[in-house]
Every structure is written in C-alpha cells, then in structure tokens.
Amino acid sequence: MSLNSTQLKLVSLLADGCFHSGERLAQTLDMSRSAIWKHLKVIREVSGLVVDSVRGKGYRLADGLELLTPHGIGGQLSPASNRRLRDVVVHQEIDSTNSWLMAQAASGAPGGIACLAERQSGGRGRHGRQWISPFGSNIYLSLLWRFELAPTQLTGLSIACGVAVAQALAGIGVRGVALKWPNDVLWQRRKLAGLLLEVGGEAGGPSYVVAGVGINTRLSHTQAQGIDQPWVDLASIPGLQGPIRNRLAGQVLDRFVALMVQYGEYGLEPFLESWQQFDHFAGEQVQLNFGANRLSGKYLGIAPDGSIRLEEEGEIRTYNSGEVGICRPPE
Ligand code: BTN
Questions:
Q1: Is the CB of 212 under 6 A from ligand 1?
Q2: Bridge partners, residue 290, by sequence
Q3: How far is residue 94's CA from residue 91's CA, in Å, rounded to a whole number?
Q4: pLDDT tens for residues 13-37?
Q5: Contact between 58 and 22 (Cβ < 8 Å)
Q6: Whole-model pTM?
Q7: Is the CB of residue 142 below 6 angstroms from any atom belonging to ligand 1?
C-alpha cells in the first residue's frame, strides 16, 4: 500500500516538524478535520512515520522530515555534472529506482538520467536480497549511464562507485568510513550503504549501467527488522548536524557522474589508490561466501582489475565474485 497524493501533501505540510492544528490542515487541504485524522492514521500505518498528536496544538512529525527535491540535489552538482546530467527524477514512491532506470534503458532512454525515491516498495539488494526502503528516510538513488565499452569492461565500476559513496560520506563529515569488497560501505563494521550495479548492452559494446545506492540516513529498529547483518544509520553517527539528505544525495550524484566519465576514459586504474584509503580490513582473516559454499583466507586487498586477493594456505588467489564475511562488531 502506498500514500496517495493528499497524504503526500499532508506529509509535506508536516515536514517542518512543527505543530499544525487540525483546523488549519483541514482548511489548507479543503477537507474536514475528521478526514485529516483518517489520512494521518494511514500515514502512520503505511509509512511508519511518527505523527505526534497533542490536544490544543495539533499534529507534527516527531522527527521532522527533509524531503528530496531536484532543486536541493541540483544545488550540489558541479557545472560539469549539471551539463552531463539529462534529468534528475524524484519519485515519491516507486518499486525500485534501479528497476525503473533499467526499464528506461531497455526502451532506449539516453544515459545521464538519475532517479531517486522517497520510498521503494520493492527495493533490491545484491544477491537477491530486499533493500529496506521506508518513506522519507534514507537515500535511494540510481544513475543510468551509457558506454561504448563492452559490458565485461564495466566490472570495475562497482569498485569505483563504492569509492564515490565513501568519499561523499567523508565529505559531509562522516569519519571512519570503510569499504568492504566489492562496495559495501561500513562504519564501525556495520553496513551504512550498499550498491547494486546492473549492466546491459551488446556483447562487444555499446553497453549501459544502472548504478544504484542505498544509504541509511535514519532507520528505526522496527523498520530494520528484516536486515540480516549489522547495520548503522547516519542519525546514530555522532557529529553530523543539519539536513543532510539533499546534500548527500547531490554529492553522491556529482561523484557518480564524474566517475562514469573518468571510468569511460581510463578504466578502474585512477580509483585503486582511493579504494585502498577506505580499505580497513587488509590482513584480516575473512570468509568468501558463494551461496552455500565458502572459503576462508587472509584478505590482501584488491587486484588492479578490482577482484579480491586472498591468501589461502600460503597461496595468493584472486576472485571476482562472492560475498565477503568479516568478524561481527561487538554487540
Ligand atoms: C546491497 O548492498 O545489497 C545493495 C543495496 C542497493 C540498494 C539500492 S537503493 C537504490 C537502488 N534501487 C534498488 O532497488 N536497489 C538500489
């Protein structure tokens, strides 16, 4: 179930976190107070937003809400990214920003389209997992880009995209961001952001990619119940102040656009050194999981093609698939 346009308007009116009387809301939306009350009930149930109701004061969104706007995001883009981006589309709700752009790509849309959403009803993670995507919190952002390269030449892009997200987070003041191969973004060994890259095109090129990132900005424990690994949100990281959703989304997008251009010209090489700056796990014993199978070894960082290097019984081997397991953080 999703919010209808009236409910979305009501959420925008309450987004400032201040109290609004039922009477005033009813006047603004041209409906009765009891209709307002009913819509707020749906908003609570469907979105999980906490709406305070206080007699004599009215209603407010307990934590306030910074809704995404193309203007707020666009304000973070460099002139070069602005020129290269064709469109920035913000959906109130969609199944998945990646799926939407993959469908656009399949029907011939040009590269340079960014898609964001306030909520995903079918957010997708790697390895067929779901990506928990409640309304108005977190960032769900995807970018469609077209290349002359063959799809097989795009394998290193996921490494480059991880670097871009880690740099954007560091840029807004998050200290201690780490990358776990190939592109999980962690803070204190808990997952803060994840990337899903989907590629299509002709075997010998041209090709396209949809690079999607989900960043946990604010996630309640109830909303996070379905997450099967240690996680963290930006709201729990000390030292971050003020509205950050538009700023962070814009800065990630800006870096994504720049990296697509750079990768198209030079490949993965320019990103390897930056990846290492965020690699906190070198020398640790890790598992590499392939579905039901797993192997373990000492993690030795990444190879120039972006694959993972492991030392197993004295031999160094590289792998380009699998999921890395590291030790859990202390509870
Ligand atoms: C992972 O770590 O498993 C990858 C998570 C990727 C989530 C993002 S949210 C925006 C985009 N749309 C999706 O459906 N998935 C990606």
A1: yes
A2: 293
A3: 6
A4: 999 999 999 999 999 999 999 999 9
A5: yes
A6: 0.94
A7: yes
